[in-house]
Amino acid sequence: MEVGLCVCVALCLFTVANSITDPSDFKILNDFREGLENPELLKWPGNGDEDPCGPPSWPHVICSGDKVSQIQVQSLGLIGPLPQNFNQLSKLSNLGLQRNKFNGSLPTFSGLSELEFAYLDYNEFDSIPSDFFDELSSIRVLALDYNPFNASTGWSLPDGLAKSVQLTNLSLLVLGSH
Ligand SMILES: *[C@@H]1O[C@H](CO)[C@@H](O)[C@H](O)[C@H]1NC(C)=O
Ligand SMILES: *[C@@H]1O[C@H](CO)[C@@H](O)[C@H](O)[C@H]1NC(C)=O
Ligand SMILES: *[C@@H]1O[C@H](CO)[C@@H](O)[C@H](O)[C@H]1NC(C)=O
């Protein structure tokens, strides 16, 4: 009887420990992976039951509780777009995508209210949606440099930026609120 209880407790703990990631965040990570041309470079486990937040967490992923708080994939050589639902990673605070070959349009980052650091530089993103900056209320460093944004005409800052970020650095290489 006692042994049975122990086994049950152990199994239950195991189950909990291995399925904690918020299902919405889990889906976005899988969408992110599936959009890439070379997802194997992430070394993320196959689509079994392994949990992005672990333990152990997937490579390049850091969680806070059951939510993804960081994705750090700089310099991996990843090719492809970001999923359009990317802004639903609601607890994302630090994003390192720099020095890859992410391309296509950036998805909106609207509503990523905890995002403080976003390194998107040295990629091949070609455009920024007009609501990209809406409600990016915590942003401190946003690096967009070395992307072929609007290569022939240059690009203008979407309106939302003026509303949500107090700019002190207008170089458009690194935008910071302080
Ligand atoms: C991204 O780059 C790859 C490889 O060059 C290309 O096949 C793909 O069409 C590009 N996607 C977009 C959205 O530009
Ligand atoms: C550059 O941006 C403007 C305004 O968003 C757009 O009308 C134009 O087509 C873009 N040019 C290129 C080459 O993407
Ligand atoms: C903006 O920030 C970048 C990175 O810190 C710096 O190299 C650049 O000189 C700054 N530009 C201005 C106009 O302050």
TrEMBL record:
Keywords for the protein's UniProt record, in alphabetical order: Glycoprotein, Leucine-rich repeat, Membrane, Receptor, Repeat, Signal, Transmembrane, Transmembrane helix
Membrane topology: Single-pass membrane protein
Subcellular location: Membrane
InterPro entries: Auxin_Ser/Thr_Kinase, LRR_dom_sf, LRR_N_plant-typ
Keyword Repeat among record annotations: yes
Membrane in keyword set: yes
Span of the signal peptide: 1-19
Xref: Pfam families: LRRNT_2
GO cellular component, one term: membrane
Domain of life: Eukaryota
Domain Leucine-rich repeat-containing N-terminal plant-type stretches: 23-64
PANTHER family reported in the protein's UniProt record: OS04G0685900 PROTEIN, OSJNBA0070M12.3 PROTEIN
Protein name as catalogued: Leucine-rich repeat-containing N-terminal plant-type domain-containing protein
Source organism: Castanea mollissima (Chinese chestnut)
Phylogenetic placement of the source organism: Eukaryota, Viridiplantae, Streptophyta, Embryophyta, Tracheophyta
